[in-house]
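Re: beginner question about structure tokens

> Can someone show what the tokenized structure looks like for a real chain? I only ever see the sequence side.

Sure, here's an example I had lying around. Input first:
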Amino acid sequence: MNLQSIVRTYITRIRPGLNNELSWYRQQPTLEEAIQFAALAINSRGKRYSHQRRLSRSVLERACTLLLANESKLTQCKDFDQLHSFLEALLAPIKGIGALYVYDTALRIGAKLGLLPSKVYLHAGTRVGARALGLDSKAKAIEILQLPEELQQLAPYEIEDALCIFKDRLGAA
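And the corresponding structure tokens:
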């Protein structure tokens, strides 16, 4: 599967669902509600996201409590990078919280705040995809212009998603 096919598949099959989820977070009546759903990893169908299924309820509740206690600080973030860094530092003391949870939670809260990534953040799955494309998989994030041209037609958060979903197919791309 070449990169163009991967991008085309992403746009037709995956983008609609991701955009619906982000829209659902944007439409939450309050930031508090968006934070609660994001922190507890709850999707628009009221189910836990598969990415966070291994995290215990108590870990998610601790994260939720911390995030809600810092709601006003979240609103002071000027961009996604600042939001992501704030969540990273805030949630670091909670055992079991990893890079994927931090990114996913920042993306969902960021959707409500109107703060979306301008670069592609890396975590376990996306690192595999980045490595397969010959990119710096040890970096915290990759600038869009460092990516193959085909991927640049996707938004940064979509590229993150695609690198993770198609990680095993990218080596042959």
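Each token stands for a local structural state, so reading them left to right follows the chain. The longest strand covers residues 119-121.
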